[in-house]
Amino acid sequence: MSKEISDKLDYEDLKLGEKAKEAFFNGESPEEIEKKYPIYLNTREVIFGLNVTDLAIAAILGRLNSLYVGDTGTGKSQLAQDFFNYYFGGKKLENGKAVDVGGKADLDIYEEVYSDLKIEKGRWETNENVKALFHFLDEINRYPEYIQNQFLRLANGFLEHRGMKIPLGEKGYSILVATANLGNGEFGGTFGMDKALQNRFAISLDFDYEQFKPTREDRIIAELLRSANPNVKEAPIRDLSDKIIQAEKEISKNSRDLGLEAEAVINYLKFGLENCYNDAIGAKEKVWPRQCQTCNKNKDGTALCSLIKAPLPRTLNSLRKYIASLDYLIHLKDPNMNVDVVDLVFKAFELTGAYQKLLNPMILGQDYFEQNPKMMRDIVESLKQDFRKNESFILTSLEKAQKGENFDDFYEYNGEIYADYSKLNKAQRQFVKKINPFVNDREIGLGWVKDQANFYKRLNELRKNKK
Question: Is the pLDDT assigned to residue 120 strictly greater than 90?
Answer without folding.
Answer: no
